[in-house]
Amino acid sequence: MQWKTADYAGWGRAVRARGTLARPERLPALAAALAARGPAIGNRRSYGDAALNAGGAAIQMTRLDRLLSFDAETGVIEAEAGVTIAELLRLFAPRGWMPPVMPGTGFATLGGCIACDVHGKNHHGAGSFGQHVLAVTLMTDTGPRAVTPGTDPGLFRATMGGLGQTGAILSARLQLRPIPGQRMRVVETRIPDFDAFIAALDASTAEFAVGWVDATARRKRLGRGILEEGELLDGSRPGPVRRAKSVPLDAPGLLLSWPVIRLFNRWRLSRIPDSGRKRIRALDDFFFPLDALQDWNRLYGKRGFHQFQCVVPQDAAPALREILAAIAKSGIASPLAVLKRMGPGRAGHLSFPMAGYTLAVDLPARKTRAAPLYARLEDMVQAAGGRLYLAKDALARPGTIAAMYPELDAWRAEIARADPEGHMTTDLMRRLKLRSAA
Fold it and tell me: Looking at the record's lineage, which domain of life comes first (predicted)?
């Protein structure tokens, strides 16, 4: 194993770091790398600085990706932290199983899904990823340590959604869910405005539901978009293998100019007839639609982008409407805007979900406009009793984040016990002062 000095970034590419990286393949190499005192990171699919350690060391876990065990009767697997969710889906869907919670990209690692306690299009029913983790093995100075909700509930809860601060996640045992087939029946419905969108999400009985929102629309058309509702299809076989295309270079800024985005959004809406559209889709096509375009983050150019993702309580839907109006008025939103309904399920102190509605919008990183807009949106979310998603954040302030996460002090106590010298600290931890009082 070798250390390499490199410039690296999160998926948004707007925040970068320079430091030394190692990619161990075996347990002894991992132990040696951790002696360098740096955090363990995954595939860097978090958008901001959650996986960055500028000026220091970091251990990339992606080569530790082996399947350790599988019980075909119960659907319980044990795998190393570097395996991706897409690989788990590829391996187990033909056997009638899949991960119970699927993030928006299959390139997320098992360890990353735990560290961010990710959610999916079925959060309103299935809860968060960490709620399906049965045990996690942390690599400590004295060797691997298995942690379960029964053996050490405080440490287990601090690890779920804990952004890797309890130690390097070596492996985990995960309860898969049975599936009747390998395709989805998807119904797409055009929604005229925000209020209709909230009503449609509340009325939906589908297991999986997600909305695309036209973030450029204003006034009477504010919040218009497309609702996708999906159900697993019985007895279906996998579709043709999807061949991903790539973005070979950083796109010019004109590609995401406001007029171009508005035209694109109108075209996307026009593809759905008034009566709606029904389709049969492969699992990966439904759960990971953007993975069909590798390195799609390059479409935002060299400056990259920030993603704003918030969740507000159910009774604060009018506040979310005002948040969307502020984004539309700003003139810097991208075509990627997602609206979902969430349930109460969360596994850790710093887990993002709450019962309500979540909105995620990409904001091209324009220095004079993105940061002021983000700060305004941040204040609106706090006033509504909501919170920001730390896996997406790169611009929030320590005080507001502390107010959004009432279990922060309990998490800090567990982190002080698990990593008293701060070896796992990342740039996000320092920026938001999460490990100590602001």
Answer: Bacteria
